[in-house]
Amino acid sequence: MQTITVDKTITTITAGAGYNLKNKVSNGAPGMVKRLLINWAIKCNIFWLAILWLRRPGTIWKVYRKMIKTRNAIWDGNMTKIYKVDGRYHYSLYAPGWPSKAYNNVIKRELLRHTHPDLSAEKPSFIFLAITRKCPMRCEHCFEWDNLNQKESFTKEDLLQTVKLYQQQEVLQIHFSGGEPMVRIKDLLDIIAFTSKKSECWVLTSGFNMTAQNARLLKQAGCRGVVVSIDHYIPELHNLFRGHAHSFSMAVQAVDVAKRAGLVTALSVCGTRQFITQGSLLPYMDFARQLGVQFVQVLEPVQIGHYENQQVLLEETHIQQLEQLFLQVNHAPEYRKYPTLLYHGFHQRRIGCFSGSRSVYIDSAGDVHACPFCHTRSFNIIDHIRSGQHALPQKENQCPRFGRIA
Ligand code: SF4
């Protein structure tokens, strides 16, 4: 494995960049022995669920092996990084915490997918739901750009109905986004209180309005975690990218108060050509480690929304650097204390994409797409609800970018 080196000068500048790193809250990573034991227990749990639901010994072993093979293909090996937050272990943003009913149901869904692909194909395990069109940011890469800051489409009742419809299909995890979902904090709290009885809830935010009190209220309502967008570890560059003079300080504060409230925390960063070419990847991981988050998600820029018709797609050399970072941070022993790195492009280019089949994206106008980055409108959920229908129509199930469904 080729390694990427850290520019310590940049990291030192970052450490003095105006945020307080004192009294850090632990990210919940257990020691090595416990980590291995927990991973072993999770695999036993999967095997036990396979016995319960598949029953035939030949099928149990075959499907179990297939699932472990898929998991290893996603991470390129045995991924053992894991975090304990509020009684549950998390190894990914897109799997509910273990142990939980939602986790077991995700595994059940995957087991059935292997044995009865047609039966499970129409049931997404998680959705991204954009609850508002309002947003105080003006981000360079915004994929909701065309919908922003217009009259709201969803009423609170529409949102509750949408959740209800997807929960009838046993959706297990819901990520609330926008616009900026925290501008609608009162509705968001009510919706999470309703949703969290059956599904794990996450909030995707720029950090706006994430005060200590709001973080505690989110936690009390049943929210499990937050994903905070920070697109550079140098405050001025992040603020420039987000088109807002205070977005960096708001985002860093959001991480801090969310951690203190007992929420799982993740950073999301848009890996632009410039960001990668300037050697910012590893310093960013250093920054994320200092903030004490559990996960970092790197998203590839795509030509939609504010980036439409722009030359933003990564070239082979950028992708190679991202893949090296992904392997290094997740598997090399010297990066054991760094947050887990999610880079979807890694598995999408090898085994296909999970969006469309396992998830859908509902934008702030109510249009249902395969994912936030592939706008493949299938139907409008608001029209559907207001026409009094109680079952969901056929959804988009294809990935137009990577072709293959994993
Ligand atoms: S990317 Fe998110 S935070 Fe940025 S302008 Fe768009 S909706 Fe707002």
Structural overview:
This is Radical SAM protein. This protein has 406 residues and is of the alpha/beta class. The protein has a domain at 119-386: TIM Barrel, CATH 3.20.20.70. It is built from 15 helices and eleven strands. It has helices at residues 8-15, 32-54, 57-75, 101-115, 117-120, 156-168, 185-195, 212-221, 235-242, 247-260, 273-277, 281-291, 316-331, 344-348, 381-386, and strands at residues 83-85, 88-90, 126-130, 173-177, 200-205, 223-229, 264-270, 295-299, 340-342, 359-362, 368-369. The radius of gyration is 20 Å and the shape is globular. The two termini are 25 Å apart. It binds iron/sulfur cluster.
Structure in a nutshell:
By secondary structure, the protein is of the alpha/beta class.
Keywords:
binds iron/sulfur cluster; TIM Barrel; disordered N terminus; globular; nine-stranded mixed beta sheet; 12% strand; two-stranded antiparallel ribbon; single chain; 406 residues; alpha/beta
- CA-to-CA gap between the ends? 25 Å
Coarse structural class: alpha/beta
Strand order, sheet with most strands: 9-8-7-6-5-4-3-10-11
| CATH H-level superfamily title of the domain at 119-386 | Aldolase class I
Largest sheet: 9 strands, mixed
Low-confidence stretches: 1-18
Query: Helicity range of the residues?
Result: 40-55%
**What's the alpha carbon Rg, rounded to whole Å?**
20 Å
Highest CATH level, the class of the domain at 119-386: Alpha Beta
CATH architecture of the domain at 119-386: Alpha-Beta Barrel
| Beta-strand percentage range | 5-15%
Bound molecules: iron/sulfur cluster
Keywords: Iron, Iron-sulfur, Metal-binding, S-adenosyl-L-methionine
InterPro entries: Aldolase_TIM, Elp3/MiaA/NifB-like_rSAM, Radical_SAM_PqqE_MftC-like, rSAM, rSAM_sf
Cofactor: [4Fe-4S] cluster
Domain Radical SAM core: 121-334
